[in-house]
């Protein structure tokens, strides 16, 4: 698999990683099976999808525990990325960026992951009651202590700007500028896909200009861009898409032209090329600093996603994808 680098330390990872959240959080609870997920992780490492992306809140905690079972055997094959800063209650999620908590949470993640170092430690959300410089400073101390190799910022909660008409990631860039004064940012994680390209406006260029890795979250549009979802089929009650305005039966049907366009491009690349692979290849084509992080819990999708690194889109392909209709339906 093609290798790409993250941050000034030039940490190398496969261009397509593995988002581990669906294995134990947010998607189709009845289909979450530990043995199947373990096979998926092993398959990813076999194929060179070395970046394993998790968080202490996924489960909570169970996602890291699951990965720990693989890392105990194959730590040298993996690039471990986990997150800190969110606490899960029974009916709510709250941010905690207090330095003491960050350090305790890191130690707990290390135990669950069965490793002595985390390759990329990401701040999941800024705590509004704690200056982000203080939180970032505590994370930097973990690097100095040898518990963490590099630091990243997760910008997945940055959608408020859309409602006010401002550019979506302006606040994120201001936050990045602040923490850069404390300790270098190696990676930023934010959504990027054919139907959610907003990061291309300012955030990805900002990262690329500074050699900062960009972890493209949800590159398959929460499964929509794979073309495997049936309009009106519905989702299990615990699936986040069951409450998502872009996944209503009406909006799923309205956005089918995007999938049709992906299928049309895939057909030009021969039998066996899928819409998902085209969607991932589009993400990778946006910058050499991008690492796509599709989430899955099934070995067959891991295999399909990894193969996208061998797909080279032509100028015609990229022009055609750029002309796809914008997605309908709110993403908030």
How is this structure best described in words?
- The protein is an alpha/beta fold.
- The chain has twelve helices and twelve strands.
- It has helices at 34-47, 62-74, 99-113, 132-144, 160-164, 170-180, 203-209, 249-254, 256-268, 275-285, 299-306, 315-322; strands spanning 3-6, 11-14, 18-19, 51-53, 79-84, 86-88, 93-95, 118-123, 148-154, 187-191, 213-217, 290-293.
- The protein has an eight-stranded parallel sheet.
- Helix 1 packs across helix 2 (62-74), helix 1 packs parallel to helix 11 and helix 9 crosses helix 10 (275-285).
- The longest helix has 15 residues, at 99-113.
- It starts with a strand and ends in a 10-residue tail after the last helix.
Determine Rg (CA atoms, Å).
19 Å
Count of runs of 4 or more consecutive helical residues = 12
First-to-last CA distance: 34 Å
Gross morphology is: globular
Poorly predicted runs of 5 or more residues: 159-166
Overall pLDDT level: 91
Q: Given the helix and strand composition, which structural class is it?
A: alpha/beta
Strand content: 15-25%
> What is the element string, with H for helices and E for strands?
EEEHEHEEEHEHEHHEHEHHHEHH
Write the layout of secondary structure elements.
Layout: E1 3-6, E2 11-14, E3 18-19, H1 34-47, E4 51-53, H2 62-74, E5 79-84, E6 86-88, E7 93-95, H3 99-113, E8 118-123, H4 132-144, E9 148-154, H5 160-164, H6 170-180, E10 187-191, H7 203-209, E11 213-217, H8 249-254, H9 256-268, H10 275-285, E12 290-293, H11 299-306, H12 315-322
Parallel strand pairs: 3-4, 4-5, 5-8, 8-9, 9-10, 10-11, 11-12
Antiparallel strand pairs: 1-2, 6-7
């Amino acid at each position: 698999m093609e290798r790409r680098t993250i941050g000034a330390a030039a940490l190398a990872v496969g261009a397509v990683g593995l988002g581990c959240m669906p294995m134990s959080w947010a998607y189709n609870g009845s289909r979450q099976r530990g043995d199947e997920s373990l096979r998926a992780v092993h398959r990813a490492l076999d194929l060179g999808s070395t970046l394993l992306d998790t968080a202490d809140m996924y489960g909570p905690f169970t996602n890291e525990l699951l990965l720990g079972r693989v890392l105990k055997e194959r730590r040298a094959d993996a690039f471990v990325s986990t997150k800190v800063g969110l606490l899960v209650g029974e009916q709510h999620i709250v941010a905690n960026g207090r330095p003491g908590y960050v350090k305790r949470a890191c130690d707990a993640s290390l135990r669950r992951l069965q490793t002595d170092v985390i390759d990329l430690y990401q701040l999941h959300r800024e705590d509004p009651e704690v200056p982000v410089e203080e939180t970032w400073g505590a994370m930097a101390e973990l690097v100095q202590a040898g518990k963490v190799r590099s630091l990243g910022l997760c910008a997945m909660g940055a959608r408020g700007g859309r409602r006010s008409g401002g550019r979506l990631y302006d606040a994120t860039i201001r936050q990045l500028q602040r923490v850069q004064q404390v300790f270098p940012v190696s990676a930023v994680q934010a959504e990027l896909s054919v139907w959610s390209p907003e990061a291309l406006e300012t955030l990805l260029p900002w990262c690329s200009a500074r050699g900062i890795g960009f972890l493209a979250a949800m590159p398959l549009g929460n499964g929509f861009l794979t073309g495997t979802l049936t309009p009106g089929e519905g989702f299990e009650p615990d699936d986040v898409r069951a409450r998502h305005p872009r996944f209503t039966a009406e909006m799923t049907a309205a956005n089918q032209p995007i999938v049709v366009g992906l299928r049309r491009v895939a057909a030009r690349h021969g039998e066996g090329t899928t819409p998902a692979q085209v969607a991932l290849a589009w993400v990778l084509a946006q910058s050499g600093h991008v690492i796509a992080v599709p989430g899955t819990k099934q070995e067959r999708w891991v295999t399909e996603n990894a193969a996208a690194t061998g797909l080279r889109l032509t100028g015609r392909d990229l022009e055609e994808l750029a002309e796809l209709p914008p997605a309908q339906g709110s993403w908030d």
